[in-house]
Design a protein that fits this description.
The protein is built from five helices and two strands. By secondary structure, it is mainly alpha-helical. It has a two-stranded antiparallel sheet.
Length: 69
C-alpha cells in the first residue's frame, strides 16, 4: 500500500506509550496497533484528529505517500 503510517516514529518523538496513547485517544490498543503497523485500511478523521491533538502534530507527520514500483 502506498500510504505509510509513521505513528510509531511520532510516538517515540513524543515519548508516549501505546497504552497511554490508547487511553488518551479513546480507541483500543488492538486498533491502535493495527494502525501503527500499517495494516489499517481506513481511519476516521475524528480519530486522526484526536491522535494529532494528543501527539501535537499534523496529519502529514503521521501519514506519507510512497509511490509503488
Amino acid at each position: 500500500m502506498p500510504i505509510e503510517v509513521n505513528l510509531d516514529l511520532m510516538m517515540v518523538k513524543r515519548k508516549i506509550s501505546l497504552t497511554e496513547l490508547s487511553d488518551k485517544v479513546g480507541i483500543t490498543m488492538a486498533n491502535l496497533s493495527i494502525l501503527k503497523q500499517g495494516h489499517a485500511r481506513a481511519i476516521r478523521f475524528s480519530t486522526l484528529e484526536k491522535i494529532c491533538e494528543v501527539l501535537d502534530c499534523q496529519p502529514g507527520d503521521l501519514l506519507s505517500y510512497k509511490k509503488e514500483g
